[in-house]
UniProtKB/TrEMBL annotation:
Residue ranges that the Swiss-Prot or TrEMBL entry lists as coiled coil: 409-436
Xref: Gene3D superfamilies: PPM-type phosphatase domain (3.60.40.10)
Database matches in SUPFAM superfamilies: PP2C-like
Domain PPM-type phosphatase: 466-697
Annotated transmembrane regions: 198-220, 232-253, 265-286, 293-311, 323-342, 354-377, 383-402
Protein's recorded name: Serine phosphatase RsbU, regulator of sigma subunit
C-alpha cells in the first residue's frame, strides 16, 4: 500500500525537485554587475521655469534625505515648482573607459538631465511650465540616460544636474545607479515593461472580451448585461493606455491629442465611466430594476464628476480636485453594492448577488493593499496591483458568463438530442398514421368514385332528342361528387318539366343530400303532375318531405322546378317555381333581348328548401316560349367563379354570348359560355360545383 501511495505522488515530487534544481542552477554563478548607486548623493535647490544649467551650478543645494514616492512634492508642493537635483560621483575601475548608462526607476513629473554641464536627455515636456498647454509627464517608464565615454571624467568628480518640474506627485525614487550600457538598458527595459508596457497585454485581453460580448449581444442574445460588460471591457482597455502614454503615437508630444485633454478623458472621465458602467452592470446582472430615482443617482454621480473634469482649467486644478471627484463618482457604485446586499434576500438571484459581493470584496481588498503600498510605504516602483484586481474581477465575470453560456449550450444540446429522439418517434408514428390514412383514403376514393357513378346515373340529360327542343347540359362537380342535382321529366320525346337544385356545402355530405333530395323531388313531381296540382304546391310538398326526411342534417337546397306544356300553335307554356335559386335567363327571339326571369312585386317571398320553421311560401310564374327563344338555367357556381383579381364571372358575359350567338345550337352556345368562363378564371382554382342547362325552342 505504501508503494502505491508513493507512486501516486511521484509526478508531483518529480516536478518539485525539477523546480528547485532549475532555481539553484539559474542563480549559481551569477555576479552583480558593477554599479555606482546614487541614492545618498542627491542634493536639491529651488529654482524657476527659466533657470538654465549655468544657473544650476551656482545654486545653494541641500541634501535630499528621502528617496521615495512624493518626496519632491513634500519639499516644494504640487503646484508646478521647478527644482534642480545635483549628484557627484567618481568612476570605479570597472566602469572606466566605456560608455555608461544611468537609470532612475521613477521620476515625476518631467525632467531634463545634464552631465558635467552637457545636455544628455529629457523625459516629459516641461518647457514654459503651467503656461504651456502641451506639458506632459514622463509617464511610468524608467528614465534611462546614456553617458558617452567622451562626456565622462575618467579621473575626478563627475556632476549630474537634473532639472525637475514638480507637478502633482513629484517624485524621484531610490535605486538610481550608473552602470555599463547593457546593464542600464536591460534594467530600464525590465522596469518599464512591468510598470508600463505590461498593461498592453491586459488592454488586448479587455478588447477581445469586449468584442466577444458585443458579438453575443448583437448576434445571439439581447441581454443588457452582455452589452454593459462589453462596454466595461472597452473602457478598461482605454483606461490602461494611460500607463504607456509615452508609446502612443497619437497623444502627447508625439502629436495629436494634448496630454491634458488625454488625461481628462482617459484617466479621469474613463475611470468615472468604468465605475458608472460597472454599477449599471451589477444592477442588470443581479436583475435589480432601478427606480427613476435610483437611475438618476447613477447618472448624476457620473455626470457631476465628468463635468468637474471637463471644466478644470489646468493640471493643478484637476489634480487637486481628484479627492473630491472620486467619492462623488463612487456613490452610484456604492448604491449598486447596497442593492446587491438587499438582493441576497431574493432566492432567485441570491447566488448572483453573493458572487458580486465576493468579487467586489476582492477588488476593494486589493485596492486597499495598493493604497497602503503607494501611500503608507510610498513604493511607486511596484506595479499597480489594483489593475490586476480589476482585471481579475472582469475575468471572473467573463468566466462566469462563459460557464453560464456553456450550461445553456449543454442544456440546448440535451434538449436538441431529446427533440431529435422525439421527432424520430413522432415521425415513425406519423409515417404509420399516414400509411393508415393513405389506405383509408384509397378506400374512400373508391367509394367516392362509386358514388360519382351512381350520381351520374341519376343526374344526366336525356340520351335522345326532345320534340321541339334543342338542349345542352354541363354538369361539372368541384370534386369527384357534386352537390348539384338536375333532372329532365319526359315521356319518350315529350318534355314535361325540368328540375335544377343546389345543395348547401360541398363534397360527400352535399352529394349524399342530393341523392336523398332527388328521390323526393322526382316522386313528388310525378305525383303532382298526374294530379294536375300547381308547380308551387309541388315545391311546397317537396320542402315538407325533405325537412322530415333529412332530420338533423343541416344542409338545405335552392332550386327551380319547371313544367312545360306544348300548345297547338307550336309554342310552349312554361310554369316555374323558384326556391331561393339564381333567376334563369330568358332570350326572347322576337325582341332579341336577354332578361332575368324576376318575380313580380306581388309574389310572396320564396326561400330555400329544407329550412324548418321559416313558413316559406312558394310562388310561380308563367311565360311562353316561341321558336328561337332560349332559357338558361344555372347554379351559382358559374356566376360566382373568381379570377386571380378576386372578381366574379357574373351574369353579363353569359347574356352577351346568348345575344350574340343565339342562332347557334344549344351545344355551341353552352360551349362558348364554358370556354369564356375558363378564360376568365385562368389558373385560379374553382371553389364550387357548376351546373348549366340550355333549352332552345326549335
Amino acid at each position: 500500500m505504501k508503494n502505491c501511495s508513493l507512486l501516486r505522488f511521484k509526478p508531483q515530487l518529480f516536478l518539485l525537485v525539477f523546480c528547485f534544481l532549475f532555481l539553484f542552477s539559474s542563480c549559481k554563478g551569477k555576479s552583480e554587475p558593477p554599479r555606482i548607486y546614487l541614492d545618498d548623493a542627491f542634493y536639491w535647490a529651488l529654482s524657476d521655469v527659466d533657470s538654465t544649467i549655468d544657473d544650476a551650478i551656482n545654486l545653494d543645494y541641500k541634501h535630499l534625505d528621502n528617496m521615495g514616492y512624493k518626496n519632491l512634492m513634500d519639499l516644494v508642493g504640487r503646484d508646478g515648482e521647478f527644482i534642480w537635483l545635483k549628484a557627484d560621483f567618481e568612476l570605479i575601475p570597472e566602469l572606466k573607459n566605456d560608455d555608461l548608462s544611468m537609470v532612475i526607476p521613477y521620476l515625476h513629473f518631467a525632467d531634463e538631465l545634464y552631465l558635467n554641464g552637457l545636455y544628455i536627455d529629457d523625459y516629459g515636456v516641461m518647457e514654459g511650465g503651467l503656461s504651456n498647454p502641451m506639458i506632459q509627464e514622463a509617464g511610468y517608464v524608467a528614465n534611462l540616460f546614456d553617458f558617452p565615454e567622451l562626456y565622462l571624467k575618467q579621473d575626478g568628480i563627475n556632476t549630474i544636474y537634473i532639472k525637475v518640474f514638480c507637478l502633482g506627485h513629484a517624485t524621484i525614487t531610490d535605486g538610481v545607479f550608473i552602470g555599463l550600457r547593457q546593464d542600464g538598458w536591460r534594467t530600464s527595459d525590465n522596469m518599464t515593461f512591468w510598470r508600463s508596457r505590461f498593461y498592453m497585454f491586459f488592454e488586448g485581453m479587455m478588447i477581445l472580451c469586449g468584442v466577444f460580448f458585443f458579438m453575443l449581444y448583437f448576434m445571439f442574445d439581447k441581454n443588457v448585461s452582455y452589452r454593459r460588460f462589453g462596454i466595461l471591457n472597452f473602457l478598461t482597455a482605454l483606461f490602461f493606455s494611460i500607463f504607456f502614454i509615452t508609446d502612443i503615437p497619437w497623444a502627447g508630444f508625439h502629436g495629436g491629442i494634448p496630454f491634458l485633454i488625454y488625461v481628462k478623458f482617459v484617466k479621469s472621465i474613463c475611470f468615472f465611466a468604468i465605475e458608472f458602467v460597472l454599477s449599471m452592470f451589477i444592477c442588470s446582472f443581479i436583475e435589480y430594476k432601478l427606480s427613476k430615482f435610483g437611475t438618476a443617482i447613477q447618472y448624476l454621480s457620473f455626470l457631476i464628476s465628468t463635468t468637474m473634469v471637463l471644466l478644470s482649467p489646468d493640471y493643478v486644478w484637476l489634480f487637486s480636485k481628484t479627492l473630491v471627484m472620486i467619492p462623488i463618482s463612487c456613490f452610484g457604485l456604492l448604491c449598486s453594492i447596497a442593492y446587491t446586499i438587499i438582493s441576497l434576500k431574493n432566492p432567485k438571484v441570491q447566488t448572483k448577488a453573493l458572487f458580486v459581493l465576493i468579487a467586489m470584496g476582492v477588488l476593494f481588498s486589493i485596492m486597499g493593499v495598493d493604497i497602503i503600498i503607494k501611500g503608507a510605504f510610498r513604493n511607486i516602483k511596484m506595479p499597480f496591483i489594483s489593475i490586476f484586481g480589476l482585471t481579475a474581477v472582469i475575468i471572473v465575470f467573463f468566466v462566469y458568463f462563459c460557464r453560464d453560456y456553456s450550461k445553456i449550450a449543454r442544456r440546448l444540446e440535451y434538449l436538441n438530442k431529446g427533440l431529435e429522439d422525439e421527432i424520430k418517434l413522432q415521425t415513425e408514428k406519423l409515417t404509420s398514421a399516414n400509411k393508415s390514412l393513405q389506405h383509408d383514403r384509397e378506400i374512400s376514393l373508391k367509394d367516392m368514385k362509386m358514388a360519382a357513378i351512381v350520381q351520374k346515373k341519376f343526374f344526366h340529360a336525356p340520351e335522345h332528342s326532345l320534340k321541339n327542343w334543342d338542349f345542352a347540359v354541363r354538369y361539372e362537380p368541384l370534386s369527384i361528387v357534386s352537390g348539384d342535382l338536375f333532372n329532365f321529366y319526359h315521356e319518350e320525346d315529350l318534355l314535361n318539366g325540368i328540375s335544377l337544385f343546389d345543395a348547401s356545402g360541398h363534397g360527400v355530405a352535399a352529394s349524399l343530400v342530393t341523392m336523398l333530395a332527388e328521390n323526393i323531388i322526382q316522386q313528388t313531381y310525378c305525383e303532382t303532375l298526374e294530379s294536375g296540382e300547381r308547380v308551387a304546391d309541388a315545391l311546397k310538398l317537396i320542402n315538407e318531405r325533405f325537412i322530415e326526411a333529412k332530420g338533423e342534417i343541416e344542409n338545405y337546397l335552392t332550386g327551380i322546378l319547371l313544367s312545360t306544356k306544348e300548345n297547338s300553335d307550336g309554342s310552349c307554356t312554361m310554369v316555374m317555381s323558384n326556391a331561393g335559386h339564381p333567376y334563369p335567363l330568358y332570350y326572347n327571339a322576337k325582341e332579341k333581348v336577354v332578361e332575368e326571369l324576376l318575380p313580380s312585386a306581388d309574389m310572396p317571398y320564396t326561400g330555400p328548401v329544407g329550412l324548418s320553421g321559416l313558413g316559406v311560401e312558394f310562388s310561380e310564374m308563367e311565360f311562353t316560349m316561341q321558336s328561337g327563344d332560349i332559357l338558361f338555367l344555372f347554379t351559382d357556381g358559374i356566376t360566382e367563379m373568381l379570377n386571380d383579381k378576386k372578381l366574379d364571372f357574373g351574369i353579363d358575359p353569359i347574356k352577351a354570348i346568348i345575344e350574340k350567338y343565339n342562332s347557334e345550337s344549344a351545344e355551341q352556345i353552352i360551349s362558348r359560355i364554358m370556354d369564356r368562363m375558363e378564360e376568365f378564371i385562368a389558373d385560379t382554382p374553382r371553389v364550387d360545383d357548376v351546373s348549366v342547362i340550355i333549352l332552345k325552342r326549335a
